[in-house]
């Protein structure tokens, strides 16, 4: 039950990231069409940036869980047994700590932007807490993903998915 819930969370964040990426496309197309047909939609550049940031952050956890993050495995490949497991646990523990801190401060930033009624300095004057929600949500979900990886490693149930992308490079 918990595994399905977590996988659903990571997959749902990835779907939302894809939707936001389509939003970036729409903003770019609006900007291009506006130049071609002499109309202006204010804030398209700012909104494209907000959507792109939200998309990037929301995709982080899904990317981690699919083994698509860049990992330097030179040292891990040289180790075996207990030393390898200890390094994995240290790396996952440290990543969990850092991602947890990042999630906390991202949420705090969005909260403070709302409290202080902080708005964008661009012509759109968007309340900044709105685009910051995507970053905060993505950071929280990434922290959950790292904690999940840490717990799986501690239990000996972690299956490392390795991207085969490097195998297709020439």
Question: Secondary-structure map with pairings?
Answer:
Layout lengths: L1 H36 L6 H22 L8 H5 L2 H35 L13 H27 L15
What's the quick description here?
With 170 residues, the protein is mostly helical. Helices cover 74% and strands 0% of the residues.
Provide structural commentary.
The protein is an all-alpha fold and 170 residues long. The protein has one domain. Helix content is 74%, strand content 0%. It contains five helices and no strands. The protein has helices spanning 2-37, 44-65, 74-78, 81-115, 129-155. The longest helix has 36 residues, at 2-37. It is elongated and about 65 Å long. The mean pLDDT is 91.
Structural class: mainly alpha
The first-to-last residue Cα distance is 42 Å
- Figure out the total of helices: 5
Shape: elongated
Overall average residue pLDDT: 91
The helix/strand series, from N terminus to C terminus, equals HHHHH
The poorly predicted ranges are: none
Largest sheet properties:
none
Radius of gyration: 20 Å
How many beta strands in the DSSP annotation?
0
Strand-residue proportion? under 5%
* Oligomer kind: single chain
Q: Estimate nothing, just give the exact number of structural domains.
A: 1
State the share of residues found in helices, binned by percent: over 70%
């Amino acid at each position: 039950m918990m595994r399905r819930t977590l996988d659903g969370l990571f997959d749902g964040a990835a779907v939302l990231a894809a939707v936001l990426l389509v939003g970036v496309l729409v903003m770019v197309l609006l900007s291009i069409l506006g130049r071609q047909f002499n109309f202006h939609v204010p804030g398209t550049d700012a909104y494209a940036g907000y959507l792109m940031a939200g998309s990037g952050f929301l995709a982080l956890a899904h990317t981690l869980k699919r083994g698509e993050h860049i990992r330097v495995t030179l040292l891990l490949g040289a180790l075996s047994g207990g030393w390898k497991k200890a390094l994995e646990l240290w790396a996952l523990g440290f990543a969990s700590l850092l991602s947890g801190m990042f999630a906390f401060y991202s949420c705090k930033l969005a909260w403070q932007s709302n409290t202080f009624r902080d708005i964008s300095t661009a012509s759109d004057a968007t309340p900044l807490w709105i685009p910051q929600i995507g970053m905060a949500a993505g950071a929280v979900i990434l922290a959950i993903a790292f904690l999940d990886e840490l717990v799986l490693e501690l239990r000996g149930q972690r299956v490392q998915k390795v991207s085969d992308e490097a195998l297709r490079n020439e």
